[in-house]
Amino acid sequence: MNNNNFRKSGLALAMAAAMGASAGADAAIELYSEAGTRFSVDGYFNAFYVNRDDKLNDVRNSDVKMGFLPNTIGFNFSKEMGDLTLGGRSSFWTTINDSLQSPTDTAIDVRQFYATVDGSFGQVLIGKDFGLYARSNIFLDEILMGFGSPGAATGVSFGNIRTGYPYPNPSAQITYRTPDMGGLNVAVGIFEPANTTPGAESEQSAPRFEAEVAYAADLNGVALTGWVNGRHQSSENSTTEVDSQGLGYGLKASVAGFSLAASGFTSEGDVPVLISDAALASEEDADGYLVQGSYTLGANRFVVSYGETDSDQGNFETENTSVAAFHNVNSNFKLVAEYNMFEQTTKSTGADAAEFDTLALGAVITF
């Protein structure tokens, strides 16, 4: 399979970050490779036993659910055409959390459906893929293959979304990526803008702009990765104009089995969960950060994670603490144990809005 295409996919980045540097290259099964044409498939399957203590309502529940990353199957192709390589990816993401609400009608969504053109100039991607703003913040999260904080009412877990970073929405886009320049990589793109001012004469006269600059280097045995990403868009109607913009950043250092990472974001005119077609009353601020440490010993990786988000726009403050252990049975089979403590308060009143302690025990299989 063409590495340039696969390593750009969200699932590949997630697997490479959480399972080791070689995972992105080894995860897919190549089904066809002949005369410069390649086709491959990759998959991600997981399930967790979840025991959650709702301290505010004095309720404890046991569930069997998926983790932060949904179950996924992806198809990848590439074809060499002279000086160009044409490629593409489609991936289908499914939940197991609706097994009693929709017993035979499991929800499936498509978060990636794009084509790529690679050459000496770099790569152009057209279609639907994860955004660039907050992309590395989430894909380099040490508990990406774990469970994380409680999320939507359907039981979907949020990892550290809204407790350290926002979600890089899969969006229609045209994105350009430079070739690797000695560890420096730059991506810039135009995206479908969100209508944050629905009403009379609502318009978005320009696309949403997103970009990310990332740099990776090895300094005397210390592996360093740093990144900065951002987003800007405007929406207006006959009475209101809302400018939405955000800046994300982070740094990760690894040496001799130890890894330390710190990331953060700041935004205006944006509820720091995801950007969507929904009215925003103002351009108020939000910010957050995530700090993590991990230690890898043989087949085991141990993680401590803490994140916070403070949002005027969303009128909440959150904090999330996780301790987790990951054990690689082999390169495609992982066991996970995680304990998560999440708290949320209403910023305007200081009242407690949520307090959950969650034990999650799960297994992850990839191919």
From TrEMBL:
Organism: Marinobacter orientalis
One GO cellular component term: cell outer membrane
Biological processes per GO annotation: monoatomic ion transport
GO molecular function annotations of the record: porin activity
Subcellular location: Cell outer membrane
Record's subunit section: Homotrimer.
Lineage of the organism: Bacteria, Pseudomonadati, Pseudomonadota, Gammaproteobacteria, Pseudomonadales
InterPro entries: Gram-neg_bact_OMP (IPR050298), Gram_neg_porin_domain (IPR033900), Porin_dom_sf (IPR023614)
Signal peptide: 1-27
Name this protein carries in UniProt: Porin
Keywords, sorted A to Z: Cell outer membrane, Ion transport, Membrane, Porin, Signal, Transmembrane, Transmembrane beta strand, Transport
